[in-house]
Write a structure and sequence with these properties.
single chain; 415 residues; 7-stranded mixed β-sheet; 6-stranded parallel β-sheet
């Protein structure tokens, strides 16, 4: 009988969002469902419902909820889910619960503990430790929520799986420095694949396409409007570029994040707003695909990242990439991107000025770079998961008692 890989997709399922993490989870489920059997695993997405993990069909887990008569209708579909709780499946030593999303709910912790008590193996994907290492770049409540979730991951995971070697080193450094930890989970990493999975046959919106007209070079920056993405640096570099007489457009593409009120006001009050400087908050995958294929370059000045999906998405379209000189981008992009100094917006401005003054045929030249597909990425993930499953040991009586005590404590708190 095949083992089962359960992939939690609770937040992605309910939210209907389309940020990087949701894209990762949809592609994990889609590709793991296809190639899992070749590794001896059937794959079942799960969501938290009424305090229990409930299996949902893969097609429902990965579908674009925003195109199904709105989120209200989609959430109503939950009532029609035939409840197949995980305890309805025979418990096997090889079963794995993969946690790729953050949840601070007590009910979530109880469900994870219940899975472990039934003999299941828990493994967690770690994107980054930014809320702990750079708390000033995230929302005010994020550090506390993330710390609670990460503590849960450390306590109950047989393995923590990072999405880059850089992120893996951060995790290992954290585990090493925490002297209170007795049993530390194993660590490993895999690289994410790249695919705009919600792109369909429809074209980008006409209003979006029009931003790329006018004959000027167009640079895009893709990512939610939040401090660590460093939109202010990009704007500062372009202010220098424009003052020097440079002619090019800058388009910020991303949903509103946090701690951005002053920046948004600065953008909207800018003398070039809606002339050379644009802000697009609702781009879908069709718009993004058009942008990658028709822009002059991608600007990616992040202060810190766990990965950087827009970089590899841009490569696949042959788009020139300008990115900050930080460790994760050196891991991903060394030799395939132009790096600039985060301490000096002048560094980027000079690169842009030089680049835009090339002959037009060189400016429009596209050089595509290969990157693993999601199928290849998940193909690398499965051996890591299997290794994490093999490393886990049967719970001792003492460990079971500790879990039962934690469970009892959480039940009291949840009343």
């Amino acid at each position: 009988m095949a083992n089962t890989l359960f992939i939690d997709c609770t937040h992605t399922y309910y939210s209907g969002s389309n940020t990087g993490i949701q894209r990762v989870i949809r592609n994990l489920i889609s590709q793991a469902s296809i190639i899992g059997p070749s590794f001896g695993y059937q794959v079942k997405p799960v969501i938290l419902k009424n305090g229990h993990f409930v299996v949902v069909p893969p097609v429902e887990a990965i579908r674009d909820k925003n195109k199904i008569r709105g989120l209200k209708h989609w959430r109503a579909l939950l009532k029609n889910i035939r409840e197949k709780r995980l305890d309805n499946y025979s418990t096997q030593a090889g079963n794995i619960l993969l946690i790729p999303e953050i949840s601070a709910l007590i009910e979530y912790r109880l469900a994870v503990i219940d899975f472990k008590l039934k003999g299941g193996n828990v493994q967690t994907i770690i994107y980054d430790l930014i809320p702990l290492t750079h708390p000033d770049t995230v929302s005010l409540d994020s550090p506390g929520i993330f710390k609670d979730w990460f503590d849960l991951a450390i306590r109950h995971s047989a393995q923590l799986i990072a999405i880059s070697q850089t992120a893996k080193k951060e995790v290992e450094r954290y585990l090493k420095n925490d002297k209170t930890l007795i049993n530390k989970p194993a660590t490993d990493y895999f690289h994410l694949g790249s695919h705009l999975d919600l792109k369909d046959r429809q074209k980008a919106s006409q209003s979006f396409i029009s931003l790329f007209g006018g004959g000027q070079p167009v640079f895009i920056m893709v990512g939610s409007i939040e401090p660590r993405k460093n939109h202010r640096y990009a704007l500062g570099a372009f202010n220098i570029f424009w003052r020097r007489g440079g002619k090019a457009k800058l388009i910020f593409i991303g949903q509103a994040g946090w701690r951005n009120e002053n920046l948004l006001a600065e953008i909207k009050n800018h003398r070039f707003y809606n002339k050379r400087l644009f802000l697009v908050r609702s781009a879908d995958d069709n718009d993004l695909d058009f942008a990658y294929k028709n822009a002059t370059g991608l600007i990616f000045p992040s202060i810190v990242e766990g990965f950087g999906l827009p970089i590899v998405e841009a490569w696949q379209a042959g788009l020139k990439v300008f990115c900050s000189d930080i460790p994760i981008f050196r891991e991903l992009a060394n030799g395939r991107a132009t790096f600039f100094d985060l301490a000096s917006p002048e560094s980027l401005a000079s690169l842009l000025f030089e680049y835009c003054h090339q002959p037009k045929d060189l400016l429009s030249k596209k050089e595509k770079h290969q990157w693993p597909s999601w199928s290849e990425s998940v193909g690398k993930l499965f051996p890591v998961l299997i290794k994490g499953q093999i490393l886990s040991k049967k719970l001792s009586d003492e460990e079971k008692n500790d879990l039962l005590a934690e469970q009892a404590d959480l039940l009291v708190k949840n009343k």
